[in-house]
Amino acid sequence: MASSLPTAEGGGEGEQQQQYGGRTTRAQILLSFKPPMPPPLIPHIEAYVNSERSAAEQAAGCRAIIDQVLLGRITINEVVTALETYLTTTDNVLRARGIQLLAEILVGLSVMPLEDTVVHSLTIFFGARLADWHSLRAALLGSLTLLRRAPHLGAVVGEDAREVARLALENLHVQALAQHDRMLCLEFFQCLLSRHGAAIAPLGGDLVFGVCAAIEEEKDPRCLLLVFRIVESLTLVFPDSDGPVADCAEDLFDIVSRYFPISFNPQAGGGGGQDGITKSDLVTSLKRVFACTPLFAQYCIPLLLEKLSSSLQGAKVDSLNYLGYCAPHYGARVLIEHAGAVWAALKTELLPLSVPASAAAATSAEPKDAEILEQATSCLTSWVETFQEEEKDFFSHDASSTTTTEVRRRSTTTESGIFLQLILKDESVEDLIASLEDDDTTTHRWRTDEISAAAAGPGPGSSISSSSTISNNRAKLRVQATARVLSAAACASPYSCYAICSQVLTRIMGIIRGLHSESPDTGLEAQGSSLLGTEQQQNVISEDGMSSCGSINSHFLSLQQNTVCFRASKSSSSRNRDYWVAIGLEVVLQIVSAARSMAEKLCAQAATTMGQYPSSVSSSKSTRRWLDPLQILAQDLIATFCQAIAINDSKEASILRVAGLQQLASFPASLSPLSRDQLQEVLSFLREVLLSGDDDSLQTEVLNALVSISDSEDRFRGVESSRVSTGILTEVIPYLLQAVAEEGTETVQLVEKQLTALQMIGGSRPIARKMVIEGLLTTVSQDLTQQYTNDGNGEWICGKVASVLHCLSNNILPRCDSSSDTDQASAAKVALEIWTFLHSSQPWAQANEQILRWSMEAMRVAVQKCNITTQKKILQKGSEILFSCRSEDTRHTTDSSVQEGMEKVVETAKSQAASVDERGWVVGHLAAVVVSLIPSTDICNERVLLEEFVGVAIHGQSPLLTEAAAHAVASMLNKCVIAAKDKEALHLHLEDMIHLVLDKGWFAELPQKKKQSTNEGSVANDTKDVSGDHVQRRVRAICAIAWAGKGLAMRGHSRVADVASLLITLLLSGTVAEDREEDGSIRMAAAQGFSIIVEDSPVCLNKAHHAVIRPLFKQRFFHSMLAPLMEAMQKASAADVELSRLWLYRGLAHLVSGIPHSVVLTDGEKAFPLLLGGISTLCTTDPSDSESLLALLLAVSGFLVDDCTGRPIAAEHVSSLVKRLLVLVQYEHSPVVRKTALQCLGAVVGLPYAGVFPLRREVLKALLTALDDRKRVVRKEAVRCRQAWVAISFR
């Protein structure tokens, strides 16, 4: 390699020096290479450069060389020495492969530090190879890799980068290359501009012209993204207005503007085009290019305005989007010459009725597309904000230093306010004011247009009144469109909001006051009171420190007074006063809403800057100066909206006016135009409307408004402590609570409406939830006491208490956050207060079961939200109350030995049966506590509690208590933890608890009981008389045993096998009773026991209630049940085989109803025949088996839709399956079963053709009946099923 230079053609020294312009010698190009490498590198190099080797072998050879360099066994210099022959050979293919290998090695060493001399030599080498088109791709890859190196790893210096850029500009003809090579070239230029922009800047115009030539006429979307980034980077390198980019700005923009608007349809079947590129990516990149430099403004704005006149919706939307995005990047000084044209274009989109049109066209014209309106509004806001940038310090000056005259002068004589003034001085705004004033002495343009349109529009049969209606409707549309424009402009900046409120809102409010003064009920006295109210308001604002510019305030007041006086002298004979008041209020609402959005925006910006909403905002008068117009008009706004709501002329108008009060009260506290008294007035008015009970639709709107206000208070809480004293928490929630507490003679529906309002308004934040919970608990206590002392209205009070407890348990407590200290305290208060109520037993003596249900539910949800310490406290208090109710001998049961307690448990439970009603409330609530406990919560006296629950679960007189007790026992078995050695004497072991609950407790109540406690114990018949009471107790015992089995199954305990064995035995043998009905009740309870074990419960034994859940417990239980069920089928006695199998299949249906289909499929070989047998047996019995049949059908459908496991199993039984489905198609007791059977029958078509086709005629014949089914859903499914079976003939 030392004898020749690596030139483009493999030539000698003279040619290479000519390429470098004679500035570089051979020593500067060649590396100081060591003597030739030993042979180990040669095989890897030959493996890569040999084009006949596979791609995998070539990659392996390159990877081996990289690994040796990274491990330090060889150096990069030694690699280049070994590659010398291939880098300088005249064979084009070998030279390209050699240079490509060197480039790939550099890519693999991109994170390895290299010496500066090595980087320099390699950079010059690859730069020189850019002239060799045979090795261009390798040279680009090597140069790009070196240019991307980080400085601490050895980066390309500025002089080398500039030299490589010069060589690239001389030798690269990008658009003549293939796509991959073009992409490498564009990445190369992008890297140069972004990483080495300062170094290559001296190339100046050559660089700009070279880049333009490289990117022109590019069409590939992958390359286009790079093109857009290159242009953006180029403008950053040459930002000056007299730089190279400025000289070529028109040509450069012409290149990129050809792609606007972007029209790109990605390839079908993927998330985008090439390499996942989407149209959104291209649009965003091109938009950034358009806005990258103000030098493009003079070419960009005319182009966008031209495209905005297009008839294509996409072009309009993109033009508006780009206009709004480019404005803040260009700046007001550049855009001032385009402001008029842009406003005219936006006016065309936002005010489509500004051009006179006929009345017929006005009424039939379709509204503008919502997307176009949204983009036009956003664009308008952006342009107004751009032209207000220079006024951002206006409100930072002292109030006394800037007068109203100065405000007007600055907004009209500087470019910063010109766009806003174009809006405010536009004829549409003036026409808006004129349409509200309806000056008889001045015929303004809107009225002229409407009169002309009305005169031309009516034909034969038309009336003058219809023409007037058309005129009013068209004028209303114009007003609404103009209000939308004003709202968008007010949202731009505080200054624009200030200007619109002072110049437009003040005038409109004056007109509305004048319209009210023309009412027959009002006169000059109303005008005087309005003026007096304004002066009083000004004084109040001054006292509160909320007005900071006296001269401006005086100007506003003079405007108001002049407007009122002007309106007082007018005639109202020719106008509909209420109609125009409603239109004016709609405009006012739009402006006030924009001001509120501006206030929230400022608060959000302050929070982002300072990390929280700064309290200093409220004390800074300069920050609030833009609110001065609204502060002055606040009292008039409140009075106007309240008066309009009180009139209640229409539903739509009332909703609009409620929204006005909502907007006024929803301002952030630190930037609110309302004083404390005014806010109190608004909330009090809304509260009274909510409590009035007259208009349901109006009350709904008021409730939604109060919820929105509450959310705003929560979102901006902590801004100003003085405002915390006034708000939803003080003006609404206490009065609603008072209304609920005082309601004693009306219907329950009214109380429920008030409770709904409470949970919607107060349920969204912890402090409000706390207040609501405390108030409702007080109501419960008072009502229970009243119910005990007054017997005349007891039923009403019980219903009211039940409604309150229902609201607590279902709507408020579930919204509490267990991680919030406030919510935890509120939940704990609910639980402890319930115990306090129970401890005073007299008020609960006459309470009904509905109160019991919801009080237990409230206790359960409340304990669920508490931590371990609080749960222990709640449990301890409940235990103390329970002990106070127990007899003396039962209270000391814990002092006897464990064995004696186990032997007496049944007798103890039976002896308590007579007195369970007295302690039932306490036991039921204790059960609600236990099901929600965290497993690590210490349960004191757990043996006593377990005995109570075991007894109540069987002998309780209320289904609520028996079920709750069973849930509690199941939870205790599920959550039982191994006690520490020092606590063994105080806690039961799990095995002892199981023995106490099952062997000595519930098993003893059954007609067939275990003789032994082992899994294979014998079963003997109990010949006791089966009376009605005994049957009920045994049914409850079976359900309780199933719940205990669920708790054991979820934790993976082996004793669940005893429970399952007992259930199967009961299904198989029933009882010794001769009464079939009683026997059926016990067997049905056993069948339902399987669904209890496998189905998810919302009230206990789930994650929310901290249950111990072992993964895949359902799968293990189902797998363990299949063999016993099949064995039981075989053991069915010959005398009663049909009845026994019937109950076994019912048990199977309950079992699969709670098992996921994927679990059934894992044992499909065993399960599918059982499912078919169940369908065959249950379809011939009574209608009560419809649910069981549906469960079996759904399990079968899981096989028919599973390609991997299910269908092969179903294919083995296709004939039997179809016969059973054809029977169910005519099942008369349930249309859902018929529909599901048809769906399964349609899915059978997907089974192997050889098994399905012979059944086609039989199926099509049977479907004729289903096509005439009396249910439409069944007929539709029959049509689809028939089409599927007919289609198999054409396979």
Automatic annotation (TrEMBL):
**Domain of life assignment:** Eukaryota
Q: What's the protein name? A: Uncharacterized protein
